[in-house]
Structure formats: C-alpha cells, structure tokens
Amino acid sequence: xxxxxxxxxxxxxxxxxxxxxxxxxxxxxxxx
Length: 32
Fold this sequence. Notes:
Blueprint: H1 4-31
C-alpha cells in the first residue's frame, strides 16, 4: 500500500495536471 504522503503527492500532481489542462483549454479558446 502507498503511504499517506505518497498518496497526497499523487493527489497534488493530479490537481496540477487538471489545472494545466484547464489552462491549455483556455489558451486554445483564446488563440485557437
């Protein structure tokens, strides 16, 4: 099993990925 710290890191990375995806979508909407 993953330790709690590792799980939190994975969750944080997931959130960052979501934010990046949203930014990419926004940029596509502006420049696309």
